[in-house]
């Protein structure tokens, strides 16, 4: 594929609206801004006039991406979390207006990235906004590890999304949006020798459940920030986080990687052998900011933090990365 003309952005802001953790004691700075608290409310069981509310953490992911260009600010939503109201309640407590969202991008079709669309629709009424989604994201799926009961991984309802008023842009290919300053990767080729997918994932086919080790709808968001390099935002990283970063480099022709943020999906015994080669690949990328969240897993996060103490940032709901 020829290099796509992704234009430089003045800056990108990524606010974590849904993730697995909330921590009000994490420190920040001008580039990593922490907002763990919401408005103060009265609680009769607390001996004070009022007390601050906190944000919600849940096993899901959502981020508000703000493109800052020439003094203008453009907003899109990347994924929507798992619960119907978690996303919208966190936006309220962060004093973010859902009406500012101009588009929605789904990283893939798993329910922990789509459930919050319900609250968004309830708030907006009939969202007349585009949604970029891979055409197989509506596939019925499950996780069926050996010796365990299968876990359903239900997809979004295409009928419900259309009925709610979303303009579905269904494509396997990369998409340039926002005057060619945001790139959605589309399908990510599997090129590394160690990111071999999920052998226990299955999809519903015509003849019943069949293996689906590679979730081809898994895609990421890319920006090229002026003077810094590529910013890569993932949902779960089912494509393999190294595959994704290499795809970003290949699509844009930009080698310099500034930040990698989102789910790296390295959790569990099956992915233990993948941690070390992932870290070695990141040594080649040399990003300035590494933020493994959501489904990355505790052990991989700690290994990454040890390997990259200057670049690693611990994510939490309410964090805004100013890149």
Strand content: 25-35%
The spatial strand order of the largest sheet comes to 3-21-2-6-7-8-9-12
Q: How many DSSP E strands? A: 21
What is the CATH level 1 assignment? Alpha Beta
Give the count of helical stretches.
6
Outline: globular
- At CATH level 3, the topology is Metallo-beta-lactamase, Chain A
Task: Note poorly predicted spans.
Answer: none
> What structural class do you assign from the helix and strand content?
alpha/beta
Sheet with most strands: 8 strands, mixed
Radius of gyration (Å): 19 Å
Q: Determine the fraction of residues in helical runs and give it as a percent range.
A: 10-25%
Distance between the termini: 28 Å
What letter string, H or E per element, gives the SSE order? Answer: EEEEEEEHEHEEEHEEEEEEEHEHEHE
Give the rounded overall mean pLDDT.
96
Number of domains: 1
What is the name of the CATH architecture? 4-Layer Sandwich
What's the name of the CATH homologous superfamily? Ribonuclease Z/Hydroxyacylglutathione hydrolase-like
